[in-house]
Amino acid sequence: MKITLDEEKCCGAGQCVLIAPEVFDQRDEDGIVILLDAEPASEQHAAVRESASVCPAAAILLSEEG
To answer: So what CATH class is 2-63?
Structure first.
């Protein structure tokens, strides 16, 4: 799995950080998402998929390559 973010879409809701804190964080100044791990281990995949599905701005893009 490979993760890409669209920072322009991110509204700073923070749901991704609550669900997968090992993979996502937020900038202090504006709450925009920060990607900590673009290719997380398989045990993180379910949480990352959930994060993408609940993102209100659809700013998390997943690719199942690899």
So the answer is: alpha beta
